Amino acid sequence: MRNFNSKVNIQKNINRNGYTLIEVIMVIALLGLLSTIALPDFKKTMTKYKLEVAAYELAQNIRLTQQKSISEGITYKIVFDLNQKNSYQMLSFGRGKLIKLPSGVFFDWTTYSEVNKTLSFSPSGAPNQGGTIAIVNGDDNTLYVIVSVATGRVRVSKVPPKR
């Protein structure tokens, strides 16, 4: 008799494994609700990320231009496209590389517009002038790439430099 009861208990446990249709529907509905709440924040995060990538890439390219000037002993420059506001060129002796900003990211303003939209580095690594490049995205977030006057030190900031 004992053997028969244990078989019945095992059979009951086997039939109880799994989920009901109502449980599955509730979980799917809950995931759908959570995803509609989280999706707008994801879009804001992506536009902010694109802006940060563009600013840090520009700062890196400015440093690279400065290092090439020092190592090769010739003048390199970066020319900003302030008409389209979405690209810049790294140039030396007519040779260069065009870099486009990510979609939705643009130059807002720069102090280099006063010197033919150009930041150049002499063979000593000194910039033609210190300055700031403001980069914006569609959400009105702004990052500033700042080049120091004497040293050519490049940094990215959320706050514009004091004038």
Verbal overview:
The protein has a single domain (2-157), classed as minor pseudopilin epsh fold, CATH 3.55.40. It is built from two helices and eight strands. It has helices at 2-16, 21-72; strands at 76-81, 87-92, 95-100, 105-110, 118-121, 131-137, 142-147, 154-157. The strands form two sheets. The chain has a four-stranded antiparallel β-sheet with strand order 3-2-1-5, covered by helices on one side. Strand 7 and strand 8 form a beta hairpin. The radius of gyration is 29 Å and the shape is elongated.
Task: Provide tags for this entry.
minor pseudopilin epsh fold, elongated, 163 residues, 41% helix
Instruction: Bin the helical content.
Output: 40-55%
CATH topology: minor pseudopilin epsh fold
Question: Segments where pLDDT lies below 50 for 5+ residues?
Answer: none
Structural class call reads alpha+beta
Strand order of the largest sheet: 3-2-1-5
CATH architecture label: 3-Layer(bab) Sandwich
Number of helices: 2
Q: How many whole angstroms does the radius of gyration measure?
A: 29 Å
Run of helices and strands: HHEEEEEEEE
- What would you give as the CATH superfamily? minor pseudopilin epsh domain
Sketch the major β-sheet: 4 strands, antiparallel
How many domains comprise the coordinates? 1
First and last CA, distance: 94 Å
Strand-residue fraction? 25-35%
Form type: elongated
The CATH class is: Alpha Beta
- The mean pLDDT is 86
Number of strands: 8
